[in-house]
Each structure stands twice: as structure tokens, then as C-alpha cells.
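Input (structure):
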């Protein structure tokens, strides 16, 4: 049986200026044809996924989208995890394939994140 981990994503909250005096957003997109500008802003820092039995869906990110709608999430970049019982810190986790395996020296067990599913819903 593998030890389970909490996971958190390192999210850089870079902001981009919007045209005119409309402020800033984390993602700004402008249509080349109609010149319409759309944006998405991260509403709050990402929430850590809390492991539970059985696993339950949990909100990790929330965006304020203006003029656009996200259709897919890809877990690119580096993620972090903490061993539940050992407190071991795992860094540099890549979840693009939907799973991750490592060994927790403190717990003396394999740790994993697997069967990962992302869902995008309107709030």
C-alpha cells in the first residue's frame, strides 16, 4: 500500500496589462481579426488538494474569466507534495502524464499520485 501525499502547484501570478485603463490580468488574449480583448484573472491562490478516502473532487483553482472560457487544463510545470504521515517535502513533481511515483525515505514506503482527473466547471 502506498503512502499518499497532499499536492500543491507552484503558480506564478504574473500580470499583464490590458488595453486602455482596464487594469491587469494574469492572462490576456487579443483576437487578431476583431481586436477584441479577453482576460482571465486568478481569484485566489491555489488550494492544496487534501487527500481523503474515498478521494473526492476539490476546487484547486478559481478564475474570473472575461470574454473567454477555458476548455482544458494541463498540469504542466512543477508541483509540490507533502507526505501525510512523514511530512516529507517532495518538489519538482511533474503531473503532465497524470501520475507520479517516488519513495519516501522517512516513511519507508512508495508514494504516488495517480488516476488524476481535471475538470473545468463554471462557478
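Output (sequence):
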Amino acid at each position: 500500500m502506498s503512502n499518499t501525499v497532499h499536492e500543491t502547484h507552484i503558480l506564478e501570478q504574473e500580470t499583464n496589462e490590458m488595453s486602455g485603463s482596464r487594469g491587469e490580468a494574469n492572462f490576456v488574449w487579443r483576437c487578431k481579426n476583431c481586436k477584441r480583448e479577453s482576460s482571465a484573472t486568478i481569484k485566489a491562490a491555489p488550494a492544496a488538494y487534501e487527500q481523503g478516502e474515498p478521494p473526492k473532487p476539490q476546487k484547486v483553482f478559481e478564475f474570473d474569466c472575461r470574454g473567454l472560457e477555458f476548455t482544458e487544463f494541463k498540469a504542466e510545470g512543477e508541483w509540490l507534495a507533502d507526505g501525510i504521515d512523514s511530512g516529507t517535502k517532495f518538489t519538482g513533481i511533474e503531473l503532465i502524464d497524470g501520475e507520479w511515483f517516488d519513495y519516501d525515505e522517512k516513511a519507508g514506503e512508495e508514494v504516488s499520485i495517480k488516476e488524476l482527473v481535471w475538470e473545468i466547471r463554471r462557478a
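Notes: Confidence is low (pLDDT under 50) at residues 1-12. The longest strand covers residues 3-9.
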